[in-house]
Structure formats: C-alpha cells, structure tokens
Write a structure and sequence with these properties.
This protein is mostly beta strands. It has no helices and eight strands. It starts with about 30 loop residues before the first strand and ends with a strand.
C-alpha cells in the first residue's frame, strides 16, 4: 500500500545502483523507488505521484465552494486531491511530457552546489523540454528515448576493482544500436 515518496530527495549516493528491483525485495511495507539515480527501499507515502493542474485565476472564498476531498488517498485511481479554485476536488494529475530525463550524477566538488532550480516540473519548460536534474540543480533540457532491445543477462563480476566504474548510466550516451547494461561489474554500452 502507498506510493513512492514524491519529494524523496535527489541523489542519496553517487553509484547509481539498483538496491532493489521490486517491492517484494523490500522489508515490511517499504516500496522499491527511484531516488535520484538509485533504486532503493523507502517508506511509502500517501501522496500520489504527479502534480495538480493549474487553477484558473484566484481561489474563490465563496460560501458555495465546497471541498470533496482533503488528501490524495480519498481519490480514486491515480487522481489527486487538488485545489480547483473553488474548494478541493479529485482531479487527474497533469501529464508529464513524453521521454525520460538522462540520468545525471551530481557534481562532485569541494564547494557545495548553490545554483537555484530553473524549473520544478515539466510544465515550467518550453516545447518538449523536460525538467531534469543537471548535476547541481533542476534545468530544462532535451529528453531521450530508451534504445530498443533488451540487455543480456549480467555475469558474475570477476574483477572487483572494476565494480562501479560505470561507462554509462542510461542509453543516452550510447550509440543508437547500443544499450547501457549491467555487465556484472559495471554498466557499459553493449
């Protein structure tokens, strides 16, 4: 029960690993969620994924305005409890733009990142650009599509020194006919 936390923080670590592949691998009621570039077990949230549609104009304080919900869990399916401009109602979340953000490791510098986010959601970006993490802050940028095909089964790692020296994090840095796959020790374009 529950959903992956919507605001679960960026980049818990720098290794971009899958510490779980499904909820069944998590203890108790935890869920296997994407957190930054890692998949890991997290406590579930009652807030459903997605963002509420923008309302038209200024919220009304009219006595006729009534709310039909107070929290997402009161809404059916993937609907969220959103401000309608006249009370809170269950509404379909705004659709994300197509495509996937490239996985980006955070900049590893001695000085902490102090850049401000340029966007919070895809709707803040022009045309088909998506709001993606760019190493230090959220920026509008192009999306990528996962390359077709499937990765071969990963072999056991015979050289532990190669572990985590990833050549890629996702398909966007690989040639069109290649995929970014786990080879046992690290991720490579194959």
């Amino acid at each position: 029960p529950g959903f992956c936390p919507v605001h679960n923080g960026l980049y818990f670590s720098y290794d971009c690993e899958a510490r779980c592949q499904g909820d069944g691998e998590c203890p108790r009621d935890q869920k296997c969620c994407l957190r930054g570039c890692d998949y890991e077990c997290l406590a579930p949230s009652e807030e459903k994924p997605g963002i509420c549609p923008l309302t038209d104009g200024i919220p009304s304080s009219s006595p006729w305005c009534k709310s039909s919900c107070a929290e997402d869990k009161e809404c059916a399916g993937d609907q969220k409890c959103c401000d309608s401009g006249c009370g809170r109602t269950c509404q379909a979340p705004e659709r994300e733009k197509p495509g996937t953000c490239p996985k980006q490791k955070p900049w590893q510098t001695l000085v902490p990142c102090n850049e401000q986010d340029a966007c919070a959601h895809d709707r803040d970006c022009p045309r088909q650009e998506k709001c993606c993490f760019a190493g230090c802050a959220m920026r509008c940028g192009p999306h990528y599509k996962e390359h077709p095909g499937a990765c071969p089964r990963a072999k056991a790692c015979s050289d532990p020194r190669q572990r985590h020296s990833n050549q890629c994090l996702d398909d966007h840095v690989c040639e069109r006919h290649e995929k970014c796959c786990d080879t046992g020790c690290r991720r490579e374009c194959v």
